[in-house]
Sequence to fold (154 residues):
Amino acid sequence: MGSARGQANHCLYLGRLLIAAWRRDLAAEITPATVLAQAYLPAVRAHLRNAYGWFLLEITRPGSLPDSPPGCVAELPEVAAGKAVPPEVREFQQLETAGWIGEMLSAEVDAPAQSAPGNLATTLVDSIDPQQSQRWAELLQSLFDRMADSLDEY
Fold:
């Protein structure tokens, strides 16, 4: 397995590929937007969540990497005795509690509200489109870029 930062970048890349495909499929107007959201959103969200989790591990540098990343700050391995919690972790924790990361982590992906008569597809309670997913990807990239500079100084 590569580095945590490499894993984070790879997951972010995969998420962006899916967002681009989602946009292409929407533009083709062959499949209803609600069906496309059901198809793409869970996978996009999983890649963005994994990117976030791997970057959390990059910040804390726990030693050996787990097989899968944590889903949030609360799932991070304990910080070694005598080692301070990095300020980036506190920032992420705030964004999970009252910010866009919390929104991304808790976005409903499979909570159907209702289906139209004669249509098996259901609408999503909190419909999230490719633009919202793209916003999350861009915000993650911005945080990764900003924090990478300080991480490289350690």
Summary: The longest strand covers residues 112-115. The chain has a mean pLDDT of 85. The beta strands are 112-115, 122-124.
